[in-house]
Amino acid sequence: MKIGLALSGGGIKGVAHVGLLKALDEYNIKPSYVTGTSAGAIVGGLYAAGYDWETILNFFRNTSIFKLSRYARSKPGILDSLKFANDLAAFFPDDSFEALKLPLSITATTVVSGEQHIFNSGSLIKPIIASASFPGVFTPIDIDGTLYFDGGVIDDFPVEPLINNCNRIIGSYVNPLSAINITSLKHSYQVLNRAYEINLHHRIKNKFTMCDILVCPDELSKFGTFSMRNVERIFQIGYESACKELEKHYKL
Question: Can you name the residues that pair with 34 across neighbouring β-strands?
Fold first, then answer.
């Protein structure tokens, strides 16, 4: 049986995907194909390269995002995305999709034409960085003359590339719609953020039925995209939620 693994975006909440990888390892479940966007592209890329969940978790523990040396100068963003290339180069010495141990598809969005692009061959590092380049925070990435940024702008949960390649799909979605009450909306930015959450949720929720197993921990809704201090807790939430879902379908 070919098992597909779909990993959503979500910033640092993507560490919950690593918790799923730990659970898959314990259940001896080995995906045959991986898709990811944004944080899911990073986790998916490392996993497809053959790294275990502990190594991937340590990558997130040890990679500092907001270092002074990463700040952009004369570019449209706060952080220069290309300055993360060296962090990934240590893990992808061949810089190639073809060198991976599992087939991988990752998505990014074209800045000018506003279209989704699926990367699954050729150079690997730039597409991963492009897919994870959150607009306004990270600078877009130029790949062969085209500018790309976060794949989650169009599709935060790239399940479709798995449908014709896999018998079973396991999805990990880390951007659940948060539960709120009207009294918590006191400022304009909170209303704007709620509008963003609702738009994202309604574009994605129909894809949940494409997954045979879906891990979507509600508890993650209380964490922000860049809640860097919560790596350990987010990982644990992902692991515990994955175990609950997997035990419904598999036996240890």
Answer: 5, 104
From CA 125, how far away is CA 187, in angstroms rounded? 39
CB-facing half-sphere around the CA of 85: CA atoms within 13 A: 14
Beta strands in the chain (DSSP E): 3-7, 33-37, 104-110, 116-119, 141-143, 146-150, 168-172, 213-215
Task: Match 């897919």 to its residue by tokens.
Answer: 131
Residues 235 and 216: their CA atoms lie apart, in Å, by: 13
* Dihedral sign for Cα atoms in the order 172, 130, 49, 102: positive
> Can you tell me whether residue 104 is helix, strand or coil?
strand
Q: What angle do CA 184, 189, 191 make, to 5 degrees?
A: 55
- For residues 94, 98, 104, 106, the Cα torsion angle rounded to the nearest 10 degrees is 70
Residue the block writes with tokens 């894809």: 207
Rounded Cα distance between 84 and 12, Å, is 15
DSSP character at residue 78: S
The segments of the chain whose pLDDT lies below 70 read 68, 180-181, 184-185, 187, 189-190, 193, 252
- Reading the block at residue 187, the tokens are 């400022």
Q: How far is CA 108 from CA 97, 119, 185, 221, 238, in A?
A: 15, 8, 32, 24, 24
- CA angle 166-6-153, nearest 5°? 130
Q: Could you count the other beta carbons within 10 Å of the beta carbon of residue 163?
A: 10
Q: Identity (one letter) of the amino acid at 178?
A: S
- pTM for the model stands at 0.94
